[in-house]
Amino acid sequence: MYKFDETPVMPKGFSCASRNCGIKEEGDDLALFYSEKTAEAAAVFTRNLVPGAPVIAGREIIKKSKLQAVVVNSRVSNVGTGDEGVKRAYRMSAAAAKELNCNEDEVIMSSTGVIAVPLPVEKIESGLVGMKADLCSDPLIGASGIMTTDTYAKAISISCDDYTLTIVGKGSGMIEPNMATMLVYVFTDAAVSAKDLDTVLRVGVNKSFNMLSVDTDTSTSDTVIAMANGLSEKEVDLDEFQQRFSAACIRMTEMLARDGEGATKLLKILVEEAIDEKQAKIYARAMVNSPLIKTMAHGCDPNIGRMLMALGKCFDNDLDVAKLELIVNGVTVFADSVKTNFDEKALRQSIDSDEVVFQVKLGLGSGEATAYGCDLTHGYVDENAAYYSS
Amino acid sequence: MYKFDETPVMPKGFSCASRNCGIKEEGDDLALFYSEKTAEAAAVFTRNLVPGAPVIAGREIIKKSKLQAVVVNSRVSNVGTGDEGVKRAYRMSAAAAKELNCNEDEVIMSSTGVIAVPLPVEKIESGLVGMKADLCSDPLIGASGIMTTDTYAKAISISCDDYTLTIVGKGSGMIEPNMATMLVYVFTDAAVSAKDLDTVLRVGVNKSFNMLSVDTDTSTSDTVIAMANGLSEKEVDLDEFQQRFSAACIRMTEMLARDGEGATKLLKILVEEAIDEKQAKIYARAMVNSPLIKTMAHGCDPNIGRMLMALGKCFDNDLDVAKLELIVNGVTVFADSVKTNFDEKALRQSIDSDEVVFQVKLGLGSGEATAYGCDLTHGYVDENAAYYSS
Question: Is B14-256 CATH 3.60.70.12?
Fold first, then answer.
C-alpha cells in the first residue's frame, strides 16, 4: 500500500552511530540514536514478569514523555541482575547524556543479550566517549549496533511531503541465541503530541509486533520506543499518520519474522469472520505458534489435520466446523466439513517459497486479525541447543 | 513408590488381541480389548473443538457407564470426516460387538492416524472376523495394535493381593507423524462403581496425562478409558485405589513423554510454593512447553535466563523474583535475585542424561504441580517436516 524509501534515511534532526566498545569480541555492540531537539515520546515494554533492568528504568523515564536519545548495547541484557543492574542501566543513560550534552532523564536505554550476567557498564561508559562525532543520517548504521543473531541490519523509512517515519529494529531471533528479544525504535520529524504518539504507538504495536511470534517465548527485554521531534513543522493528519505508522510497523514485523531463528519462510495467518477481534487473535496466534503448523510449512505439506487441530485446541471459543473454510496460499483446502479436491502437487509447489499465507474463514462474525511468524527448522534447534549461556 | 509388575499382565477376566487388517501395509493396525464380564466404565476425552468421530460417538456410549470391549484402529483417525465419519465409528463398534457376542452399546471405539481421510471401515469389519480366537492375557499384544510413531509398545501393570491394575497406552508422539494423539486404556478387576471410577479417573488424569505435553498441540482424538469388571471380588479401599491408579497413570505419562517425537530425554518440572495448584500448573506448563527450555535441555545447558523468561511470560500471575529459587537436577542455580556460583561443568554433565528435573520454588504459598515433557530435537523437525498428510 505504502511505498517505502529505497534507501532508508533518518528523519530531519535525527542521527545515529554504532561502535564496538569491547563487550563483543568483534562487531558493533553499542548504538546511539539522537534527536537534535527534544522529542515527544512514548514506549511499550515487555509484559514479562521478570523485566530487565532497562525496562524497569525505562518505565520511569518514559513517564515524562520526553526523549532526546536512546542508547543500546548488545551481547548482555542486564536482566536478572538485581538492584545493581538497575543502577548500571542508569549509569548507561547518564554517560550517553554527558556525551550528547543533554538531560539524563531524557535518555532511555536498552540492553539485549545473555541474562543473569552483570552489565559491563565501564566498557559502555568508555565507549560512549567521542561517539557524538560519529553521528550520521543512515539508520542502518544504528541498526548494526543493536543486532544479536539477526542475519542483517534492519531499518526502513517512509517519506511523504510532510514528514519522514523511520523504524530501526532488531530481530525476534534469539539472543546469541538466548531469547526472542525485540527492540524497535520509531523516529519521525512529524509534529505529534506525546499523548497522540502514545495512542498511535499502541494501535500500531497491537496490529504488528504484538502479533509476531517466533517461538512463543516472550523476552524479558522487549521494547518499542517512538520519538517525534516535530522538526518537519507541518500539521499532521492523525488518521493518515496512524495508517502510515501501522503500515511501517507491519513491514518491520514481517522482516523480523522472516529473520527468526533458523527461519526459511514467513508465515502469515489471516483469521476472518470471527465473533470479534479478540477471538480472531486467539485463533491466529494458536496457528502461528503451533509446532506442527510451523514444521508442515517447512515441509511444504498442506496438512489439513494440523490446521483443524490448531484451531480446535483454542478451548472455550466458538467454532462451527460446518461453516469453517481453510485457504492456503489462495487455495481452499477445507470447506463444508470435509477436505476439498485440491491439486496437492501444485499447492506443495506454492508453499515451497519464502512466504505462506494461511487464511481461516470462521463464518461467525466480522472480527479479523493477522499473526506473523516463521517455520520451525533444524536451524532453530541448532542455534538454541548449541548455545552456551555463560 | 509402587512396584510395577516385571512383566505386565491383564487383570482377571480381561484379554486383548491385535492384527493387521490392511489399513497399514505392515504391522498391526487393529486392536481389541475385552472383558468377559461387563465392566463399570468411565472416560475422559480431548477438549479439542474439532473432536474426531470416535470421540463424538464415545461421549454418547460412555453415558451408560458400562463397557465390555474397546476396539481401536491406527493409521486413520476418522477426524474431519463429517456425519459419515460418525456412522463409520458406530459400524466399527457394531462389528466388534458381533464378533464378541456382546451389546453394541457396550463397545467403545478409538481411531488414531491421519486426519480428514475416510475411515476404511470395511477393512476393520473384515479384520474383526475371527479375532475373538486371538484374545490373550498379554497387554503388550494389545498395545502393539494401537501404535503409530511410538518406538515401542507400552503397557504396565501393578498387582496387589486384592486386584490388578493395567494400563495400555500409545504415545503422545505424532501420528505418522501427524498429531500428538494419546490413547490410554486402564483395566482392573477391582470392584469399583462407575461413579467412583469416574472420580478416580479424573483425579488421576489431572495429575498425569493432563500435565503431559510434547509440543503444545492438543489432538482431536485424545482418549482415556477406564474399565473395572469387579472379578477380583474383593472390597477396595478407595483411597488406596486412587493412589495406585494415579501412580500408574504417572508412570505411563513418563513413558509417553520419554518416547515423544524425536525426544532424547524426559523433562519433569516441579513447581512448588505457588499461591495455589492452579498457578503452579500454569508455571509448570509454561516451562515444559517453552521451545527454549526444551532446546537447552537438549543442549545440556543450565540457562537461567530461559527459566526466568518462561516463568515471567505467565502474565497476570504473582511472581516475586526475590523469593524465587531455581533448582536443576538438585543444584540451586538462582536465588536471592541472582545467579548462584554453581559448578557449571558438573551440572552440564548431570543434564546430559535421559532425565532432567527442573524445580521451581516460588516462595508464595503451598500450591504445587508437576508437568512432564521432552526435549526438542532435529528428530522432531524431521518427523514433522518430512510428513506427507495424504
Answer: yes
